[in-house]
């Protein structure tokens, strides 16, 4: 009863209509949407109980600069309330002013602002997403993986040019958007069709994923493309052909040739298995729910075999011609997908019956693949259990399902698609993914409390040698090592340094030091783990301790010195001395750096005085008394007053504090004395003739 229809004219006049079963359509009220008399509405949509529109505000001066005239548009919103007392418009709220022309498209929670024209190159390189509940605008360039959000606290921040102020340099190098058609899906994302016929889904957070490629090559500017989603099915009409595509997998379900080209989709709420089509001759319903056909078991699975085979052979082909499923089935060149399809159709139809009617070669292959087929059948059974299980059992089934998926991917090729899929699994089921990771890597603590892993070398190579950050782009996908580190930080943070140490041990065995093929040849593993730690939204004392442990577990000289400086900055002197004592044994050069650093600290304050008996034995053999005095004099604190013999503060460095160290250095035998000690202590003089 509260639904209303608003008809909005270009000059802002708005008629609000209401439909009653008895009397039909009734005009409730006529209103003025815009405040200015010269405003012209170019695009409008409804978002919740509000109207959102983009209006043109012509400049007062007819001879204004053309560059200023381009930014003469304004995006506004206004609440529209329909009640018993009539229709009431709320106050006008400006979302964005001094902007170029935008087409506004509303989803239930967000409003997408798509550039209407490409006359100005800079503004046609990105889209805007307005989040009304958070009062936030997101700038996104999906093809480049660029996303930046800004909260609009005041009206001054709604200025388009101020919004772009911090991103102009990044956006300048991007290519203009390639958008032929756009439409909002029922899931809240924005469907974008490029002039090449590629259909992508832009999510409200600014990330983009590929859905489908339309046939027929590049699209002409005048050729209309209609998009509509029904549940998980994407319906698309192009040149009189209806395409039905699974949004989740991108698989073409059905393709129908329509008898007429002028067809429009109708809203059909509650009906997700049929499409309502409006044509010149009437309204038609098209059902795409397919009954179970026992004569063709698992047709989707068999089709997937050929689609995967197309991708596989195309990547390895030197020919420029595109390989299709039809060519693969008819060609007879590639026998592997044909054999696999025959085995799947035969075995899945007969379930547990013995293989009959297969070629001898196929029968042998079926015997080899029997375990894999059983695994697939158990996975399908598990999926059915998840769907039918009560709420209290769903979690355990999901954990088992996630473990099987993670294990399957870790034992297959780790390409970009598999990595993106793993990212989505870790994001959707974080706890189950953590348990699956522990199981696949066989992580556990031994009797001494040390972390051990019994993973196979193949699994380790997947964890460390998969696609890296520069290869996967910036679209929210991170490499597998970073995914696992994030899980450690969330569920078992104290194990993370031990895990990084384990991975370093495996790297040292499998790859030569600084090998460019290995992970350490790019960015060191401890730095990658530190990058995951730095991405945490909230940082506390535990994170400082974690940073220290990650630096120290690397055992790299620069990392150890960085940890030492961090401890000095935190004034944790007991830990400073412990680290110095432990890591000075790694190398003479690191020993010298550590001792010189602590000697400089000792010259500046008296905090290290209680630990001098532990520090002085760390003095390197090559340091002389003059070297020590030079370091001390260089780091003495500058005094503002004239020096006096006896300071009342009691924090000055005295010769008495340095005396034990200087005595140790002076009394140490010289290197040359040690070299000739045997000759000097010879019992006979002169020594015997050789």
From TrEMBL:
Pfam families: HPS6 (PF15702), HPS6_C (PF20468). It comes from the Eukaryota. Signal peptide: none annotated. GO terms for cellular component: BLOC-2 complex; lysosomal membrane. Residues 303-690 form the BLOC-2 complex member HPS6 C-terminal domain. Residues 3-285 form the BLOC-2 complex member HPS6 N-terminal domain. GO terms for biological process: lysosome localization; protein localization to membrane. This is HPS6 protein. It comes from Pedionomus torquatus (Plains-wanderer). The lineage of its organism: Eukaryota, Metazoa, Chordata, Craniata, Vertebrata. The gene is Hps6.
């Amino acid at each position: 009863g509260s639904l209303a229809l608003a008809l909005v004219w270009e000059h802002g006049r708005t008629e609000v209509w209401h439909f009653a079963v008895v009397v039909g359509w009734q005009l409730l009220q006529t209103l003025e949407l815009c405040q200015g008399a010269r405003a012209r509405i170019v695009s409008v949509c409804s978002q919740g109980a509000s109207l959102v529109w983009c209006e043109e505000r012509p400049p007062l001066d007819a001879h204004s600069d053309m560059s200023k005239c381009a930014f003469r548009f304004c995006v506004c919103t206004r609440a529209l309330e329909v009640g018993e007392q009539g229709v009431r418009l709320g106050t006008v709220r400006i979302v964005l002013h001094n902007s170029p022309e935008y087409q506004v498209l509303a989803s239930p929670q967000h409003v997408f602002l798509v550039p209407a024209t490409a006359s100005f190159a800079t503004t046609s390189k990105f889209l805007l997403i307005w989040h009304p509940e958070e009062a936030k605008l997101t700038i996104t360039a999906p093809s480049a993986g660029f996303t930046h959000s800004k909260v609009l606290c005041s009206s001054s921040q709604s200025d388009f040019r101020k919004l772009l102020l911090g991103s102009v340099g990044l956006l300048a190098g991007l290519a203009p958007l390639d958008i032929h058609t756009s439409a909002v899906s029922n899931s809240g994302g924005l469907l974008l069709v490029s002039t090449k016929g590629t259909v992508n889904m832009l999510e409200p957070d600014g990330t983009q994923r590929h859905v489908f490629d339309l046939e027929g090559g590049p699209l002409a500017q005048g050729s209309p493309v209609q998009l509509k989603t029904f549940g998980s099915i994407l319906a698309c009409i192009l040149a009189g052909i209806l395409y039905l595509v699974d949004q989740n997998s991108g698989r073409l379900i059905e393709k129908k040739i329509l008898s007429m080209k002028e067809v429009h989709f109708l809203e059909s709420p509650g009906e997700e298995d049929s499409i309502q089509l409006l044509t010149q001759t009437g309204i038609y319903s098209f059902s795409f729910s397919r009954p179970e056909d026992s004569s063709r078991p698992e047709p989707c699975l068999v089709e997937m075999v050929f689609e995967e085979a197309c991708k596989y052979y195309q990547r390895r082909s030197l020919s420029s011609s595109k390989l299709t499923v039809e060519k693969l089935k008819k060609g007879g060149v590639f026998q592997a997908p044909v054999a696999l399809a025959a085995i799947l159709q035969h075995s899945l139809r007969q379930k547990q019956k013995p293989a009959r009617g297969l070629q001898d070669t196929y029968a042998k292959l079926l015997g080899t693949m029997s375990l894999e087929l059983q695994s697939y059948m158990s996975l399908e059974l598990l999926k059915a259990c998840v769907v039918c299980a009560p709420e209290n059992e769903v979690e355990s089934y999901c954990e088992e399902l996630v473990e099987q998926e993670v294990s399957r991917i870790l034992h297959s090729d780790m390409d970009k698609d598999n990595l993106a899929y793993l990212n989505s699994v870790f994001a959707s089921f974080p706890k189950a993914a953590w348990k699956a990771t522990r199981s696949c890597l066989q992580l556990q603590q031994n009797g001494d409390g040390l972390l051990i892993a019994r993973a196979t070398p193949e699994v380790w190579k997947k964890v460390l040698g998969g696609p890296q950050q520069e290869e996967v782009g910036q679209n929210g996908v991170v490499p597998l090592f970073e995914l696992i580190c994030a899980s450690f930080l969330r569920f078992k943070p104290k194990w993370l340094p031990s895990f990084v140490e384990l991975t370093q041990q495996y790297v040292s065995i499998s790859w030569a030091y600084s090998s460019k093929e290995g992970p350490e040849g790019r960015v060191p593993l401890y730095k990658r783990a530190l990058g995951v730690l730095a991405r945490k939204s909230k940082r506390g004392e535990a994170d400082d301790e974690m940073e220290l442990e990650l630096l120290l577990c690397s055992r790299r000289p620069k990392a150890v010195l960085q940890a030492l400086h961090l401890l000095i900055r935190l004034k944790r002197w007991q830990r400073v001395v412990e680290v110095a004592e432990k890591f000075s044994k790694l190398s003479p050069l690191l020993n010298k750096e550590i001792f010189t650093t602590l000697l400089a600290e000792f010259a500046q304050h008296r905090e290290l005085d209680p630990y001098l008996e532990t520090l002085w034995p760390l003095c390197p053999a090559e340091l002389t008394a003059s070297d020590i005095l030079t370091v001390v004099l260089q780091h003495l604190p500058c005094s503002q007053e004239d020096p006096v013999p006896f300071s009342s503060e009691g924090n000055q460095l005295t010769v008495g504090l340095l005396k034990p160290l200087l005595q140790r250095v002076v009394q140490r035998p010289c290197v040359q004395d040690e070299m000739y000690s045997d000759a000097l202590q010879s019992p006979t003089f002169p020594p015997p003739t050789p």
